[in-house]
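Subject: design request, 177 residues
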């Protein structure tokens, strides 16, 4: 029996699911995307790629023509700076069982909830900054990221993506000696 997939329509910078129980289940069970007023789910571009790779969705353009994963990836990389690095960290955290949501209002890429905790039930534990292994970070940038995490009562997690797309995490916290 063929497993049902959620139909998602992608146009410009938005990806919206069909209105269906399966689409609502993506949100209710796994907290992908955000619900819209018309009972659909809006997904981020990173979530779309993750769900495409997991074969949970089918992606279509505004004229109802299928969009292949590679074509979508190229469009997403044009639209979002640092897309692949961010995707690698997102996918790694999701594969480890964490709920990962955007953290733009915190000045970070993602906020991450402990396993088993859903957004709204409790606060995120970490804010995450994905970084390419070959890129640099000044002490000023590092201190600013740490200050944001501290002021939002979250832990700072730096996800460093290497050339093999493996992710290594460093958790940074304020300490009083």
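Subject: RE: design request

Done. Sequence follows.
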């Amino acid at each position: 029996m063929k497993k049902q997939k959620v139909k998602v329509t992608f146009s410009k910078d938005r990806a919206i699911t069909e209105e269906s129980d399966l689409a609502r289940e993506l949100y209710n069970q796994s907290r992908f995307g955000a619900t819209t007023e018309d009972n659909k789910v809006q997904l981020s571009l990173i979530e779309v790629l993750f769900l495409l790779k997991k074969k949970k969705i089918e992606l279509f353009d505004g004229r109802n023509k299928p969009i292949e994963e590679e074509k979508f990836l190229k469009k997403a990389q044009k639209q979002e700076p640092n897309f692949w690095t961010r995707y690698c960290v997102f996918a790694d955290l999701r594969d480890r069982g964490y709920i990962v949501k955007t953290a733009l209002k915190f000045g970070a890429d993602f906020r991450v909830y402990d396993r088993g905790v859903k957004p709204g039930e409790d606060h995120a534990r970490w804010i995450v900054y994905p970084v390419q292994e070959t890129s640099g970070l000044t002490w000023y940038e590092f201190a600013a990221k740490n200050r944001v995490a501290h002021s939002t009562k979250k832990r700072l997690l730096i996800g460093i993506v290497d050339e093999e797309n493996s992710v290594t995490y460093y958790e940074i916290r304020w300490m009083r000696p």
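The mean pLDDT is 91.
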